[in-house]
Amino acid sequence: GQQLNQSPQSMFIQEGEDVSMNCTSSSIFNTWLWYKQDPGEGPVLLIALYKAGELTSNGRLTAQFGITRKDSFLNISASIPSDVGIYFCAGRIRGNAGNMLTFGGGTRLMVKP
Amino acid sequence: GAGVSQSPSNKVTEKGKDVELRCDPISGHTALYWYRQSLGQGLEFLIYFQGNSAPDKSGLPSDRFSAERTGGSVSTLTIQRTQQEDSAVYLCASSLAIGYEQYFGPGTRLTVT
């Protein structure tokens, strides 16, 4: 099946730092989504992108839909402790029956001790 | 309003036993999806329902897995003769209809001993 490569797999942050993560694919997607998952919870949708080149912000979060439609990035500015969690990218392929999402492996965000 | 709910939240079962996992979608959502998340991994799509029908069952890992949805609402995912490799978090999501964004439940953590 389709693969989404998400990087980095994990990262440590200090409060106040900016964070960047990205997803790439060998397939063209017509939708990119970014989710955050806290322990013991299901993923929560953060940002949805529908057009190539689209740049969308949600508070301190900014995400972009790559021009090639094969990549997307998520930036978090001025990180705070509650940003800790696992971030997943997900994509949907044009004409994909059932609205099926393909997920990346996740980026685990942790706080530096 | 109420989100997607799943039960049980945790299930420990012995190898070889059958288990049933339940999902209550958001009221009015016609599409329902099941995913599996192994420890530290991304989400693996299993099956989706549009109304009561499941047009594509190819994502189910084996014939021990089945799912049904009655009355266009509650869905159950059944795993027969459980194996240790079935241990994972099973997540359910629903959307208003196919093509709309998916909202996830908290998941059922299944442990097969």
Task: Explain how this protein is built.
The complex is a heterodimer of chains A (113) and B (113). Chain A is mainly β and 113 residues long. Chain A has strands at 4-7, 10-13, 19-25, 31-37, 44-49, 55-58, 61-65, 71-76, 85-92, 102-103, 107-111. Helices cover 0% and strands 47% of the residues of chain B. Chain B has no helices and ten strands. In chain B, the strands form two sheets. In chain B, strands 2, 4, 5, 8, 9 and 10 form a six-stranded mixed beta sheet that branches. In chain B, strands 1-3-7-6 form a four-stranded antiparallel beta sheet, with no helix packed on it. The model of chain B has no long low-confidence stretch (mean pLDDT 92). The chains are: A mainly beta (113), B mainly beta (113).
Strand content of chain B: over 45%
Tell me the distance between the termini of chain B: 37 Å
| Annotation, overall tally of beta strands of chain A | 11
Low-confidence segments of chain A, given as residue ranges, are none
Number of helices of chain A: 0
Structural class of chain B: mainly beta
Main beta sheet strand tally, sense and closure of chain A? 6 strands, mixed
Content-based structural category of chain A: mainly beta
Gyration radius of chain B, in Å: 13 Å
Helix/strand order of chain B: EEEEEEEEEE
Q: What do the pLDDT scores of chain B average to?
A: 92
Structural shape of chain B: globular
Percent range for β-strand residues of chain A: over 45%
Comma- or semicolon-separated keywords:
heterodimer; A: 113 residues; mainly beta; 6-stranded mixed sheet; 5-stranded antiparallel sheet; B: 113 residues; 4-stranded antiparallel sheet; globular
